[in-house]
Amino acid sequence: MNYTQELGPPRSLLPLELEGVSFSAGARLIIDDVSVRLDAGRRTVIVGPNGAGKSVLLRLCHGLLSPTHGTIRWNSPEAPGTARRQAMVFQRPVLLRRSALANVLYALQVAGVSRNHRQQRAREALLKVGLDGLRAHPARVLSGGEQQRLALARAWALRPEVLFLDEPTASLDPGAAQEIEAIIAAMHGAGTKILMVTHSLGQARRMADEILFLHQGRLIERASAERFFKHPRSLEAAQFLEGELPW
Amino acid sequence: MHYFSYIDVGVSSLPSAMSSLSQGGLEALRLIAGADPKLVQIVSLSLQVSLSAVAVACLAGLPLGAAIAVSRFHGRRALIVALNASMGLPPVVVGLLVYLMLSRAGPLGELGLLFTPAAMVVAQAILITPIIAALSRQVIEDAWMEYREQLHSLGETRLGAAVTLLWDLRFSLVTIVLAGFGRAAAEVGAVMIVGGNIDGVTRVMTTAIALETSKGDLPLALGLGMVLLVIVFSLNAAAYLVNETAQRRYG
Asked: Which stretch of DSSP H or E encloses residue B31?
């Protein structure tokens, strides 16, 4: 075991490199030979039509699925059995039948945070998402927007280097969605890499520094957000933007 | 098997059924209201035996159900089918098998447990462990489908996930445990065979009802029957209320 490395500041997880990654479920090829390198810093948003494989790609990166072919390599991989340095927020938050605070404490406990630090970190995270006043409430009876904010607080308390988000506002009303976007922006401001899937191009415009455009499981285009929305290079992206944009 | 001999006794001496029902019912209420020592003794032994059996069955069945729910292995489906099928184990068959195990010539004969409350606990626990394991497996697996990605994302191990699910589903599991208790308390065949229905030692509500009915002592049988019904009803009402309240409070 390399002690000097353990004592020093841990090396960054990023960049994340995908090399020829494919994923198939049965006979269906869902992700088809995707190679991409994701660096720290920028907010990366994955867009594409329904069934393009956006959510699957996100799960592959986060390790919830294993690629059928190809490799996914972190700069400094998480050692098995140690706390995760990445977190994910799902479209529908999965919360435990306990208080809002206890949900965050649970995540910290799984991450191996010592007991006397958990309380403070959980309260801080709840404050940041504006839920400290509701900390004693059972998590599952909170409103949809509050539940998603709690899911973000749970992720934030873990101080992840990378945050994956799978359509985090898809089942929320516009007001709640706006709050979620603000929290994500704040997490990014605090230094967390954002990798998000969305079907809302408006959200992609507001949130993205760079766009990954996925079509039928293939990574067709990668561009800065500004460029992607003004001058998509591929025909598929142009058609997608034309078909999806409300203006 | 001497303990079956009472069955032939006194059936012809039964008074006319309707009048005996009303008379016996009144007498039964008097026994209950007066906390008849014999009745109290039988009821309390019943509760001790069945609660112990439920405790044992929970210790075995809940972890088993949770483990099967969150794991994938060869033969898993066969195991689930077998588990579901054993929910319907006939009590007399279980009683017979436990009897053979515990009888003096049997492999566990040296323990001297036959015709003791401990033997009844063993038999009832064997009866209801599959019920608790199979039903909890179903409930936990449904929840696991919902929680799996989130718990994996947090870095939770399978063992940790099983424990988390057991606690998160505690209110649903209470209903399952009470179903198990109901089955244990209402069962007659297994405890009759391994307990022997010995007065003051292994006589429980169900075996006493069977015996007293055949002897023609309807008040005691009816009184015990009422107590048994009240226990089963109130447990189910309690389970319903617990669930209802929990649903509202915890979602």
From this structure: helix B17-33
Give the range of the structural domain holding residue A130, as residue numbers without chain letter.
Answer: 96-159
pLDDT at B15: 52
Q: Is residue A107 part of a domain?
A: yes
DSSP strand pairing (A28-38 vs A43-47): unpaired
Domain B36-250 CATH class label:
mainly alpha
What pLDDT, on a 0 to 100 scale, did the predictor assign at position B10? 45
Query: Is A48 among the domain residues?
Result: no
Separation CA B54–CA B132 (nearest Å):
9
Token reading at A152: 């973000």
- What is the Cα B66 distance to its own chain's centre? 20
B155 neighbourhood in chain A, CB within 8 Å? 83-84, 110-111
DSSP class of residue B103 equals S
| Domain-embedded: residue A66 | no
**Cα of A206 to nearest chain B Cα, Å:** 26
- Asked if B164 has any chain A CB less than 8 Å from its own CB, the reply is yes
Contact: B164, A96; criterion CB under 8 Å: yes
Q: Which of A91, A43, A85 is nearest to A188 (CA)?
A: A43
Residue A7 has pLDDT above 80, yes or no: no
Looking at residue B35, its amino acid is A
Complex ipTM:
0.91
Place A245 in a pLDDT band, splitting at 50, 70 and 90.
Answer: low
Q: Could you give the C-alpha distances from A181 to A93, A185, A205, A241, in angstroms and in order?
A: 15, 6, 12, 22
Place of tokens 């001999």: B5
The answer for residues whose C-beta is within 8 angstroms of residue B7's C-beta and 6 or more apart is B214
| CB neighbourhood size of A176 (10 A) | 18
d(CA A24, CA A98): 37
* Cβ contact, residue pair A110, B160, below 8 Å: yes
Domain count, chain A: 1
Q: Tell me if A140 is assigned to some domain.
A: yes
pLDDT at B110: 92
